[in-house]
Each structure stands twice: as C-alpha cells, then as structure tokens.
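User: I'm new to structure prediction. If I give you an amino acid sequence, what do you actually give back? Let's try with this one:
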Amino acid sequence: MFGLGPAELILILVIALVIFGPAKLPEMGKALGSGIKEFKKATSSVKDEMRLEAADDKSQELADDKSQEAADAELKKG
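Assistant: Good question. You get back a string of structure tokens that encode the predicted 3D arrangement of the chain. For your 78 residues, that looks like this:
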C-alpha cells in the first residue's frame, strides 16, 4: 500500500488525531471511503467504455475485411 509500513501508518494516524481531533476522524474516514468508492466507480465506467469501443472497432474491422473479401471475389468472377 504505497510502500507504507505499519509504523508509518500509525504515525500518520496519530498526527491526524492531533490535528483534527477524535470527533472529526470518523467523518473524515467516511468521506475518504466514499471518495475512493466514487473514484473506483468512475474508473470502472471508463474501462467499460473503452472495452466497448475496442470491441466496436474490432467488429468494424472484421466487417471491413469481409466486405473487402467479397469485393475481391466479385472481381475474380467478373
């Protein structure tokens, strides 16, 4: 997790506790958790869109290849 060991995490939590106080820490944790959840949802959405676009591009290439093959076959016949 970002190369942080247990000692570094404890130090960060102690500093946060001193700065913000015990009443604000649960609120900040909840806000951080929901922010991470939204970020994951947004990146997942972008990944899905990119996969769909890649699939559409691939299907278009296959359709172009088939139409090119049909045109080549037509030229050979005629």
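You can read the tokens as a compact description of the fold. Here is one thing that stands out. The chain has one domain: 6-77.
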